[in-house]
Amino acid sequence: MNQLNRKNRIVLTKLLTVAVAVVALLLASTAHAAAPGITGTAFSLVASQDYISQPDGAMIYSWGYGCSGTVAPASF
User: Fold this and answer.
1) What is the number of other CB atoms lying within 10 angstroms of the CB of residue 48?
2) 3-state class of 10 per DSSP?
3) CA gap 63, 43 in Å, rounded
4) Is the model's pTM score more than 0.70?
């Protein structure tokens, strides 16, 4: 392969990479997350520590996270 063909192939590869990235950005939509029982854009996250019992009877130390306040249970 001569030097000109190699340079053309490198340029085309870079151009194709940029084109794929641009198409991916154009097709990407905004992601939305949802948590059951939470409405609006603001909430209070709380963390607490406790021990969790395992099926074999062992207890492990763990942290749990949730929302503070009154939150209606989700209906799935």
Assistant:
1) 9
2) helix
3) 19
4) no
CB 74, CB 36: distance < 8 Å: yes
Q: Could you tell me the sign of the dihedral formed by the alpha carbons of 65, 67, 68, 73, in that order?
A: negative
Q: CB–CB of 44/71 below 8 Å? A: no
Rounded Cα distance between 75 and 69, Å, is 18
How far does the chain reach from its first CA to its final CA, in angstroms? Answer: 62
What value does the mean pLDDT take over residues 6-34? 83
Give the 3-state secondary structure of residue 20: helix
Would the pLDDT of 76 be above 50? no
Q: Over 50: is that where the pLDDT of 18 sits?
A: yes
List Cβ neighbours of 37 (8 Å cut-off, separation of 6 or more): 67, 71, 72, 73, 74
Residue type present at position 11: V
